[in-house]
């Protein structure tokens, strides 16, 4: 029975594959040919869905795709290189995006220059290997194996036969390569900073962007001149160059100009008043407290009222025996004769 049932199912599947291209629906399927979308608003057959879910969904999908293909064949068609192509109209349904549209990358310095001058880059060979006639083998166009192949080719370097100190040409070539790599890395970082609108210090003389105020430029010159071991004593000054004001405290070893002596009593009184006001304005303590020493309060002696008024009692005087002796408590003493 199982074999017969499988044969019948295969026959029905073959019949389904040979279905007509005409599909009838109770509610017309909405088609958006520009986006290749089909919206089917018809209700599902719950009984057929429960009996065979996969079979029912496959049949439903086939009918909807057939309606979409019939709509595409109604569009204007043309032949492009022995291929029939349909011209799709503008999409009506706007598909939502999960992420923002990526912004175009800003051009690098070289790309901007090439665009202005009309320089077009040549397409590189897509092949990763290249035949070398000198080594008689295939070598890669880039990568570490490429550098090893170049070392095999340049195993001998010609030098001038002068009486000069002979430098290692291989070390010089390696150092030059390192300088080129550092220069390229610096240019790459500059391009990133330019794309993100980050100001970076320029190489060479400072510009107005770094020192917008003349006072800042004067301070920078003073600090640079006094940064030597002699605190700028043997450094030549620029014409009409003066030390920056209010920077002597920040530069160690730089002499501060002494204030003039007060001309009269009023001037001295004003200075002392300003000094006192500056001290009182600050919240810092003027006198340092030594917290390492514990604070001990001495006990005040008690006062006793006597006949002649109040008298201070000092240390207690030893009391006498008042003629009473206890020989058992006596320890030592002078031996009597």
In short:
The chain is mostly helical and 337 residues long. It has helices spanning 2-17, 46-51, 53-73, 109-117, 144-153, 169-195, 214-225, 265-281, and strands at residues 30-32, 37-39, 77-79, 84-86, 129-132, 137-140, 303-306, 309-312.
Main sheet makeup: 2 strands, antiparallel
Estimated structural class: mainly alpha
* Gap between N and C termini: 149 Å
Shape: extended
Q: What is the N-to-C succession of helices and strands? A: HEEHHEEHEEHHHHEE
Number of strands: 8
Percentage of residues in strands: 5-15%
* Helix content percent band: 25-40%
Q: Which spans have pLDDT < 50 for at least 5 consecutive residues?
A: none
Which strand order do you get reading across the main beta sheet?
1-2
Mean pLDDT: 76
Rg over CA atoms: 51 Å
Number of helices: 8
Describe the structure.
This protein has 337 residues and is mainly alpha-helical. It contains eight helices and eight strands. The N and C termini lie far apart (149 Å). The mean pLDDT is 76.
How does the SSE layout of this entry go?
Elements: H1 2-17, E1 30-32, E2 37-39, H2 46-51, H3 53-73, E3 77-79, E4 84-86, H4 109-117, E5 129-132, E6 137-140, H5 144-153, H6 169-195, H7 214-225, H8 265-281, E7 303-306, E8 309-312
Antiparallel strand pairs: 1-2, 3-4, 5-6, 7-8
Features:
single chain; 337 residues; mainly alpha; two-stranded antiparallel sheet; two-stranded antiparallel ribbon; 8 helices; 8 strands
């Amino acid at each position: 029975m199982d074999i017969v049932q499988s044969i019948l199912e295969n026959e029905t599947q073959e019949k389904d594959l040979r279905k007509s291209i005409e599909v009838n629906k109770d509610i017309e399927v909405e088609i958006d040919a520009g986006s290749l979308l089909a919206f089917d608003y018809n209700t599902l057959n719950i009984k057929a869905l429960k009996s065979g879910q996969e079979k029912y969904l496959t049949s439903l999908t086939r009918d909807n795709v057939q309606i979409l293909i019939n709509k595409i064949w109604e569009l204007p068609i043309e032949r492009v290189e022995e291929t029939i192509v349909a011209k799709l109209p503008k999409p009506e349904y706007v598909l939502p995006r999960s992420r923002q549209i990526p912004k175009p990358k800003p051009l690098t310095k070289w790309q901007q220059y090439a665009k202005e001058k009309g320089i077009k880059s040549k397409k590189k060979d897509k092949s990763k290997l290249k035949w070398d006639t000198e080594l008689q083998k295939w070598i890669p166009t880039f990568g570490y194996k490429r550098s090893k192949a170049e070392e095999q080719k340049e195993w001998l370097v010609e030098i001038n036969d002068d009486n000069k100190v002979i430098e290692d040409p291989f070390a010089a070539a390696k150092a030059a390569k390192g300088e080129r790599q550092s220069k390229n890395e610096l240019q790459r970082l500059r391009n990133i900073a330019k794309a993100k609108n980050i100001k970076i210090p320029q190489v060479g003389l400072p510009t107005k962007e770094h020192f917008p105020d003349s006072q800042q430029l004067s301070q920078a010159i003073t600090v640079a001149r006094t940064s030597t071991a002699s605190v700028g004593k043997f450094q030549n000054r620029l014409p009409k160059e003066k030390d920056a004001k209010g920077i002597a405290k920040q530069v160690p070893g730089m002499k501060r100009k002494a204030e003039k002596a007060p001309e009269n009593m009023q001037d001295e009184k004003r200075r002392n008043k300003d000094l006192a006001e500056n001290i009182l304005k600050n919240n810092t303590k003027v006198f340092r407290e030594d917290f390492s020493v514990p604070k001990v309060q001495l006990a005040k002696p008690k006062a006793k009222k006597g006949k002649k008024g109040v008298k201070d009692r000092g240390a207690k005087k030893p009391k006498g025996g008042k003629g009473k002796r206890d020989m058992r408590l006596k320890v030592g003493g002078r031996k009597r004769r």
